[in-house]
Design goal:
Blueprint lengths: L4 E7 L3 E8 L4 E9 L7 E6 L10 E4 L5 H14 L9 E8 L10 E2 L2 H9 L8 H14 L5 E5 L9 H4 L5 H6 L9 H15 L7 E7 L3 E7 L2 E5 L21 H8 L5 H10 L2 H6 L4 H9 L3 H25 L4 E5 H6 L1 H8 L11 H5 L6 E2 L8 E4 L4 H13 L2
Parallel strand pairs: 1-6, 6-8, 9-12, 12-14
Antiparallel strand pairs: 1-2, 2-3, 3-4, 4-5, 7-8, 9-10, 10-11, 13-14
Length: about 400
C-alpha cells in the first residue's frame, strides 16, 4: 500500500484548522476545527467526508481543551473513530502552514530540529503567527515523529520578487541588520489561484500573467508573471497594502510618529490600532463586508465611504500591477470577499476599460463554488473568480516533497 494521505494543520494561537486529504486523487477525507483552545468554552467540529461516519455529518464536541497538545489529541481521536487515525500506514506526511519563512525558507521544507529552531528564530517577524505554528509542529512531531513533517511557508511564493521590488528605500545596513524587506503573505493562496486561473484560460502557467486579489478579512494583491510572483502588496508584515477588515493597509509612516508625539500613544497601542482597529472596522465600525454593503445600500455615509476607500485601493493596485506586468491576461478574485461579493468585483473593475477590463454583469452576479470567468466576451483581459484552496496547495507541496 502506497502512503498517499496528508494531514494539513493550520495552528493558530487558540485554534487548529485541519484537513485530511488523499493525494492519490486529491480528495478530502475529513475536515475540522478546534477553537477557543485554553478556554472553558472550547469547541471541536469534525466532519468525515468518506466512510460510515460521513453519513452522520458533522460531529461537535464542547468543553474545555487545555492546550494544543490536547487539541491535536482530540483531532487524532476523531480521525481514529472514522478509521483514519494518525497511526494509519496510509499517512505520508503532515503539512504545516507556517506564516513567515524569512529569506531562509523559499520552498516547502522537511522539519528537523534545526529547521524548527530557525522557524522559532523568525518569531520577531511574525509574533502573532509563528509561535502558534511552532507549537503545532512540536505537538505533531510528538504524535507522529516517524513520518515527515513538512513546513509550507506563506512567504515562499513571494520570494521570487526582484530585489529592487523587495527592498525598502531605507538605509541598507539597517535594513539588513533587522531583516527589513518585503516578504508578502497568503502565498499558498496566490500560488494556487494563479495556476488555477491559467487552467481556466486553457493556457500553460508559463504563458499567463495574472493579478491575484486575495480578499478576505486580510487582503493582498500579487502580480504573477508566468507562474512567478514579481510583486505583492503585503510587506515586512501583513499590515501593508490593501484596505482590510481591521488593518489599515498602506499608510504614511509619519502617522505613527504623529500618534506617538502628539497623541501620546505607545508602540503597542499604535500596533493594536493599525492591526486590529483600522480598515473597514476603523472607518465604519464593521469589518464584515456583507454588513458594510448592507449599510451602504441603506444610505449609511460611513459605510459608503469605507467601501469607496476599499475599492479605490483595489483600483490603484490593479493599475500599478498592470504597469509592472506590462501585459495582463487575467485579474483573479479569491477568498471570502473576492469569491462572494459581486459588488466588490463590479466596483473594482468598473471604469477600467482602458486597461482591457470589463465584466459580464449577469455572470458576475451569479454565486457559485466553481472557478469561472465573469468578464465580458469582448474584454481583452479576463476576470476570474477562483475559490482558493490553501489546504490543497499545502498538501500538494508537502506530498511532492516526500515523493520526490
Amino acid at each position: 500500500m502506497t502512503a498517499s494521505r496528508v494531514l494539513v494543520l493550520n495552528s493558530g494561537s487558540s485554534s487548529v484548522k485541519y484537513q485530511l486529504l488523499d493525494m492519490a486523487d486529491r480528495s478530502r477525507l475529513a475536515v475540522g476545527l478546534v477553537e477557543r483552545i485554553g478556554e472553558e468554552t472550547s469547541r471541536l467540529v469534525h466532519e468525515p467526508l468518506i466512510g460510515p461516519g460521513a453519513a452522520g455529518g458533522k460531529r461537535e464536541r464542547l468543553g474545555p481543551i487545555a492546550d494544543h497538545e490536547e487539541a491535536l489529541g482530540a483531532v487524532a481521536a476523531e480521525l481514529a473513530a472514522d478509521g483514519m487515525g494518525l497511526d494509519s500506514p496510509e499517512l505520508a506526511a503532515v503539512g504545516h502552514r507556517v506564516v513567515h519563512g524569512g529569506t531562509r525558507f523559499t520552498q516547502p521544507t522537511v522539519i528537523d530540529d534545526e529547521v524548527l529552531a530557525e522557524i522559532r528564530s523568525l518569531i520577531p517577524l511574525a509574533p502573532l503567527h509563528n509561535p502558534a505554528n511552532v507549537t503545532g509542529i512540536e505537538v505533531a512531531r510528538g504524535l507522529r515523529g516517524d513520518i515527515p513533517q513538512i513546513a509550507v511557508f506563506d512567504t515562499a511564493f513571494h520570494s521570487t520578487i526582484p530585489e529592487y521590488a523587495a527592498r525598502y528605500a531605507i538605509d541598507a545596513a539597517t535594513a539588513d541588520k533587522y531583516a527589513i524587506r518585503r516578504y508578502g503573505f497568503h502565498g499558498t493562496s496566490h500560488a494556487y489561484v494563479s495556476r488555477a486561473t491559467a487552467g481556466l484560460l486553457g493556457k500553460p502557467v508559463e504563458d499567463v500573467n495574472v493579478i491575484v486579489l486575495h480578499l478576505g478579512n486580510g487582503a493582498s494583491a500579487s502580480a504573477v508573471r508566468g507562474g512567478v510572483c514579481v510583486e505583492t502588496s503585503m510587506g515586512l508584515t501583513p499590515l501593508e497594502g490593501l484596505v482590510m477588515g481591521t488593518r489599515s493597509g498602506d499608510l504614511d509612516p509619519a502617522v505613527i510618529f504623529h500618534l506617538a508625539r502628539v497623541g501620546g500613544l505607545s508602540v503597542d497601542e499604535i500596533d493594536s490600532l493599525l492591526n486590529k482597529k483600522s480598515g473597514l472596522l476603523g472607518m465604519c465600525g464593521d469589518n464584515d463586508m456583507r454588513e458594510v454593503l448592507r449599510r451602504a445600500g441603506e444610505g449609511d455615509e460611513a459605510a459608503a465611504t469605507a467601501f469607496a476607500a476599499y475599492v479605490h485601493r483595489l483600483k490603484k493596485y490593479i493599475g500599478a500591477y498592470s504597469a509592472v506586468l506590462g501585459r495582463v491576461d487575467a485579474v483573479a478574485f479569491t477568498a471570502g470577499v473576492g469569491e462572494n461579493a459581486h459588488q466588490v468585483r463590479e466596483a473594482a473593475v468598473g471604469g477600467l476599460a482602458e486597461l482591457g477590463l470589463a465584466l459580464d454583469l449577469q455572470a458576475n452576479a451569479v454565486r457559485s463554488p466553481e472557478p469561472r470567468l465573469v468578464s465580458a466576451e469582448y474584454a481583452r483581459v479576463a476576470v476570474a473568480v477562483v475559490p482558493t484552496d490553501e489546504e490543497l496547495e499545502i498538501a500538494t507541496q508537502a506530498y511532492a516533497l516526500v515523493t520526490r
